[in-house]
Design a protein that fits this description.
The chain has 314 residues and is mostly beta strands. It folds into 3 domains: 43-118, no CATH class; 122-134 and 221-300, no CATH class; 137-220, no CATH class. The chain contains 1 helix and 20 strands. The strands form 6 sheets. Strands 5, 6, 7, 8 and 9 form a 5-stranded antiparallel β-sheet that branches. It has a 5-stranded antiparallel β-sheet with strand order 10-15-20-19-16. It has a 4-stranded antiparallel β-sheet with strand order 11-12-13-14, with no helix packed on it.
Length: 314
């Protein structure tokens, strides 16, 4: 059986056939819209799908049909407008073309944008995850080493202390002792030993009866980091944030644009002893269509970061 198609998209008829005494006539009817101009223009197909990630990022997938000869020059362009109406302006991000039979191509285009109701459509809300573990640090860095860190939940006496009165953090008053070789050393709490009455070099924990500390040099402390990302239409925001790597914040904000990079349930104040506890340690930027995806990492230090070493971000 040979079918002939004259290009009019009117009707194609199969010859009548006899199947078990029943005559049938199969007719395939094609409706042709003259505006399509033989599919030289891309025709949007039903079933477009729009998604919102809950943070303000909109994505959409649209399927088009078009003549193969024109399929690579119309909707297949980065930054093209999305035909689906949604809250926000979506632009084409990537596309694929499948060359079907009869010279027709199926074009799948992915669009991306920001909900105009979220931060004015300039940036999405940050999506953040937290990681906390333990790391080893020298005991002399412990916040409860010299003076009692009651604000951090410690009670009783500090680990080494500053010696009996009139000892202070700036001028300790350790007790003189003699080691096994007749050398004079100076001790504080738990056998903490120093080379001078007023401190100086820490020589270790040398009192065997203080078995919680004897011979110990390090302790396990918490290590907390936050990793997150957001999308923005602004090319200035990523550039400004990159310039803030190595700087600190006491409220989660490192630039004036997106505000705090941490969700409010993690807290809004991050300071200890007048020092900022958040450090912007890493920023990575990649572009998606006409958007920029900003990935970042923030480190948290419960003791705060020294202002003489780490400058404030704002």
């Amino acid at each position: 059986m040979i079918l002939k198609f004259d290009g009019s998209f009117s009707q194609i008829c199969f010859p009548a056939c006899n199947v078990q005494g029943i005559y049938t006539l199969a007719v395939i009817a094609f409706y042709y819209d003259s505006k399509l101009n033989n599919l030289t223009a891309a025709v949007q197909q039903p079933g477009a799908k729009v998604s919102d990630d809950g943070y303000g990022l909109l994505t959409c997938t649209v399927v088009w049909k078009q003549a193969i000869a024109n399929a690579y020059s119309s909707v297949t362009n980065r930054g093209g407008n999305c035909p689906v109406s949604a809250t926000g302006t979506m632009k084409s991000h990537k596309w694929s073309v499948v060359e079907d039979a009869l010279g027709v191509a199926t074009i799948t285009v992915d669009y991306i944008g920001i909900d105009s109701g979220v931060n004015g459509g300039v940036y999405t809300n940050p999506q953040v995850g937290a990681s906390q573990g333990l790391t080893s640090e020298h005991l002399t860095t412990h916040p409860n080493f010299f003076t009692l860190a009651s604000s951090l939940g410690f009670s009783g006496a500090p680990i080494a202390g500053v010696g009996p009165s009139p000892g202070t953090i700036n001028s300790p008053n350790y007790t003189a002792t003699t080691d096994g070789e007749g050398r004079t050393e100076y001790t504080g709490n738990n056998g903490a030993t120093f080379e001078k009455k007023t401190g100086g070099k820490f020589l270790g924990f040398k009192l065997p009866s203080a078995n919680d500390f004897y011979g110990k040099t390090n302790y396990l402390t918490t290590q907390t980091s936050f990793s997150g990302h957001f999308y923005t239409t602004s090319s200035t925001i990523p550039k400004d944030l990159v310039a803030k790597v190595g700087r600190t914040s006491g409220n989660g904000s490192f630039i004036s644009g997106p505000g705090s990079l941490l969700p409010s349930y993690m807290g809004t104040g991050f300071t200890y002893d007048s020092k900022n506890q958040l450090l912007l340690s890493q920023v990575n930027v990649e572009d998606y269509g006409l958007l920029y995806k900003v990935n970042y990492e923030i480190r948290y230090n419960r003791n705060g970061y020294a202002k003489a070493v780490y400058a404030d971000a704002l």
